[in-house]
Amino acid sequence: MKNKLHFKGVMRSLMLGAAAVTFSCTFTACDNESVDAADPVAEFKAESENGAIIPGQYIVVYKDGAKLRMSEAATYAQRVEMVRDFSKNILAENGISQTNVEQAFGQAIKGAAVKITAEEATKLRQDPRVDYVEPDRIVMLAKPGTGGGGSAGQTVPYGITRVGNGSGAGKTAWVIDSGIDLDHPDLNVDVARSITVFTSGRDAGSADDGNGHGTHVAGTIAARNNTVGVIGVAYDATVVAVKVLDSRGSGSYSGVIAGVDYVAANGKSGDVANMSLGGPVSQALDDAVVAAASKGIKFALAAGNESTHASNSSPARANHANIYTVSAMDSNDRFASFSNYGNPPVDYCAPGVSILSTWKGGGYNTISGTSMASPHVAGLLLLGNIATDGYVKNDPDGNADPIAHR
Fold first, then answer.
1. What does pTM read for this prediction?
2. Structure confidence at residue 243 as a pLDDT band (50, 70, 90)
3. At 261, phi and psi to the nearest 5?
4. Which option is the CATH number for 52-137: 3.30.70.80, 1.20.1250.20, 3.20.20.120, 3.30.450.40?
5. How high does pLDDT run on average in the chain?
């Protein structure tokens, strides 16, 4: 099942209008509750900019043989700063001045996000130290919901019942998303290791979730077994917020890569990372996830919500033995109409329609998407090897995905 396709090459360029329709709400959830496999993201398709190219911003990735001279004893912060300085030198040597290095990556991949012109990007591609250059892109979720409110007693969501659960105490899940409600009473959040990649604005300085999406994902993975609220697949596990999406649910591919880079540097073998986000093909994003997975960190990836083949989406298409791409189904084991498909790269199907979980503000919310299916598998990965229990009905590719189970 792990013989997934891994494509290399230049990322497709899309006009903003095309991206707004074709790649809308990728790996996101809608705020409205859906009764069955009806399309819960359709209302956002016309307005989302997910996957749109960020004008004048590029991701530059260096070859392994580039003379970065990194000491094995260097801290992660030092490695990032070395790559930042290296990037500035390469830009200067190519006659590119007055350029901001927006992000630098020092672990999963060696590279940077830089503000340059298309002509300067072409020039950098000719530098023998540069492996490839691709446009940076927008990552955008659907509009956040309201959530809020507490719970008088503990509810077991149907998805948890369907896939099975157990104690995840002592295990760690990294949630690369919109942050996590850091003091939610139903979650064990490692605040000390939680980060935000934002350096300015309301989302800088704290990994707290202003959107709700990341908190929802965290609850499905690991909500506490504490008699209130909901319970997660790997209940009582520790979750770490890696905030790469702001309160609007918006970010950049380079910011997501910075989050993956942080997990690669700070996670350990046996940890699990969940990515309920993504968009059009990005070699840099795929390469970063594969490199992090090579450290023994297991990744659960949402297949995407475009009703198309998942091999057209990153990081869903990324290929490694520790990477698991997940499609979505409803409470009757029917393939969700919005879910991407294709095996490979899809490995498992899991519940993703009308999923109840934790929300920002200490609350709870019911939303839908492959974003909600992926954390079910992330929880199972924390508990050990994944088994299966039947196959999803009505898989559009004719090759039914196995349903993930403990």
1. 0.89
2. very high
3. -60, -40
4. 3.30.70.80
5. 88
Where along the chain do its domains lie?
52-137, 158-405
Active site residue 213: yes
Q: Are 300 and 315 in contact (CB under 8 A)?
A: no
Instruction: Reply yes or no on whether 371 is catalytic.
Output: yes
**Active site annotation includes 177:** yes
Peptide bond connecting 40 to the previous residue in cis, omega within 30 degrees of 0: no
Preceding omega of 315 cis (within 30 degrees of 0): yes
Model confidence over 287-302: pLDDT tens digits?
999 999 999 999 999 9
| End-to-end Cα, the chain, rounded Å | 17
> From the candidates 194, 282, 357, 371, which is the catalytic residue?
371
Catalytic member of 131, 136, 177, 287:
177
Could you tell me the pLDDT band of residue 68, with boundaries at 50, 70 and 90?
confident
Within 8 A by CB and 6+ apart from 396, the residues are: 307, 335, 341
CATH level 3 topology of 158-405: Rossmann fold (3.40.50)
